[in-house]
Backbone:
């Protein structure tokens, strides 16, 4: 027998679970599927190696879904300051004012209590699974993926690995960068693999939780520090943190092969001096990074959200923040579709979703590349400014500040002149 829903969401990651909660709150019947099985939160466990910097906008969205209190009750680390600087030695460095090589944002200067929170992905997902499951209209099915997806003029059907058949007006692919839904729907992507990969290292350091997250840009890639929560009774004077080391795949393979003691020594030599004193390495993992954009956000009865639609360079930590914006936008438009009595796959609404989200996601992809070029290059900044068509070196600190603010989710808009610069970057006209 086929189980019928209004919408089936494949992928109950952070984005899929948020969307399911929002749709469930609107009385839309949702089948939410994930091939993974949930793990209960354990307050004594080491942190998840995957962490994200959630912006103030994401915090507001998660508040509106009712997930924020549960998330904070598990663990989330606010950061009040954010610093980015250039570690590339070039002949002009000594002559330049600090504002050209370092940018620091402080919540107090912006009249805010904090700039964002560093949260383990499993904690965000756990909080959202709780809110999704609290909706009577949401049915969560875990532990299995799809074997097929078929579309007809009046509905879409999926079959799960145990043979269960489900039908709905609309299927949402929120199943991440390697989206099976995207493939089954026949939606292609444009993809550029970056030269660098990212290695994430879970560590403990001596001292209380820092209130700053920072990133130094080296010629081989950025090196970043993200503070986490205190390490608890077992290590009362220590705090968890996350390091991100971007480098060539060959260099990261070398680093991964080192013992923890050797890696600790290598971090000591390679990270900026302001890194707190490390006491322990808990885990390490590397991730390939790519800029990927789906050629369509919807096709017939399938629509994509989050990493299934787009992946960006994680250097400013905006991936899931964009995914939450997709979910919020789609949720609002589907509410309108339901109110108008329309089929939920009506292109009138899905077209508006693509019109709103594609340019916004593309802009952030471009800003990420500009951000990278502005902070990490071996060209003296004056030449770089000229190459980018800024005309005068004095425009550079302006551009860097504004681009960094936008890339970190502190500003919602890029100023016009900076948008023009984006189009001068090589190889970006394809996305
Ligand atoms: C090194 C690194 C650092 C990052 N740091 C940040 C950061 O600081 N801030 C930030 O905003 N973003 C960051 N990101 C990006 C962020 O992790 C992603 O954007 C985010 O996880 C995307 O969420 P999602 O729900 O779209 O997809 P995912 O998190 O990939 O979730 C997909 C879900 O779908 C399920 N699934 C997959 N296939 C199937 C299937 N066939 N059937 C059923 N279920 C399926 C999976 O089990 C999973 O639960 C970072 C990424 C990397 C690599």
Residues:
């Amino acid at each position: 027998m086929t189980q019928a829903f209004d919408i089936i969401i494949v992928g109950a990651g952070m984005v899929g679970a948020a969307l399911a909660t929002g749709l469930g709150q609107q009385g839309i019947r949702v089948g939410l599927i994930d091939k993974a099985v949930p793990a209960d939160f354990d307050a004594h466990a080491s942190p998840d190696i995957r962490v994200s910097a959630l912006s103030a906008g994401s915090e507001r969205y998660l508040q509106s879904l009712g997930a924020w209190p549960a998330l904070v009750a598990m663990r989330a680390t606010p950061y009040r300051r954010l610093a980015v600087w250039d570690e590339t030695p070039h002949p002009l460095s000594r002559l330049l004012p600090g504002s050209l090589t370092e940018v620091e944002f402080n919540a107090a200067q912006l009249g805010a209590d904090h700039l964002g929170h560093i949260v383990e992905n499993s904690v965000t997902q756990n909080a959202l699974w709780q809110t999704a499951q609290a909706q009577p209209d949401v049915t969560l099915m875990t532990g299995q993926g799809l074997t097929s997806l078929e579309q007809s003029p009046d509905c879409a059907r999926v079959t799960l690995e145990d043979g269960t058949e489900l039908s709905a007006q609309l299927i949402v692919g929120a199943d991440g960068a390697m989206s099976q839904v995207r493939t089954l729907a026949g939606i292609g992507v444009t993809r550029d693999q970056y030269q660098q990969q990212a290695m994430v290292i879970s560590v403990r350091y001596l001292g209380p939780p820092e209130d700053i997250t920072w990133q130094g840009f080296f010629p081989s890639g950025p090196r970043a520090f993200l503070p986490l929560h205190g390490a608890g009774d077992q290590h009362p004077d220590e705090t968890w943190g996350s390091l991100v080391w971007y480098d060539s795949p060959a260099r990261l393979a070398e680093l991964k092969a080192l013992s923890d003691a050797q890696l600790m020594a290598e971090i000591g030599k390679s990270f900026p001096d302001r890194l707190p004193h490390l006491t322990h390495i808990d885990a390490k993992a590397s991730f390939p990074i790519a800029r990927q954009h789906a050629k369509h956000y919807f096709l017939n009865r399938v629509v994509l959200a989050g990493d299934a639609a787009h992946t960006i360079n994680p250097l400013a930590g905006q991936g899931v923040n964009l995914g939450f914006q997709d979910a919020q936008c789609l949720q609002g438009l589907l509410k309108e579709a339901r109110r108008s009595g329309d089929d939920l796959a009506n292109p009138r609404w899905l077209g508006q979703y693509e019109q709103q989200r594609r340019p916004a996601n593309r802009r952030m992809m471009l800003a990420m590349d500009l951000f990278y070029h502005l902070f990490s290059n071996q060209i003296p900044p004056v030449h770089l400014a000229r190459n980018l068509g800024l005309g005068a070196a004095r425009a550079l600190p302006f551009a860097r500040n504004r681009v960094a603010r936008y890339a970190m989710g502190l500003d919602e808009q890029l100023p016009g002149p900076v948008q023009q610069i984006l189009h001068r970057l090589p190889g970006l006209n394809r996305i």
